[in-house]
Amino acid sequence: MNSLQEAKAIAKILDNRKALNVRVIKIADISSLADYMVIATGNSSTHVKSLADYVEYEMDEQGVSVSHIEGHRSDTWILLDYVDVIVHVFNEESRQYYDLDRLWEDGEVIDISDIITE
After folding, report:
1. Residue 41, H or E segment
2. pTM for this prediction
């Protein structure tokens, strides 16, 4: 599975669990951090945690293990690092506050309308 396939698989997993405003941004051309960033919003602290847990579980089932997790004790923002894909799951307030969508606006937003139901 290449990094774009990983990012799209993660976006689909998040969508399946009713994540809001799922975005995939290609950052490979502007950063050495990763190839793609996936950003999603949960509607409660429980939802944020369950989204992150579900991504970790489903990707593990597909043979892709998370390299590092940050904020798992937090109820506002959890980061899952898959080396080439970084996943951010926020609550609404934290997503607006940190505004990663704006921070990475020079990246290429990937069209995922064919794989999500929003």
Report:
1. strand 36-42
2. 0.94
Tell me the residue type at 34.
A
For residues 10 and 79, give the distance between their C-alpha atoms in angstroms, rounded to a whole number: 13
Q: CB 29: neighbour CB atoms within 10 A?
A: 9
Each of the 118 residues of the chain gets a pLDDT tens digit; together they read 899 999 999 999 999 999 999 999 999 999 999 999 999 999 999 999 999 999 999 999 999 999 999 997 778 999 999 999 999 999 999 999 999 999 999 999 999 999 887 5
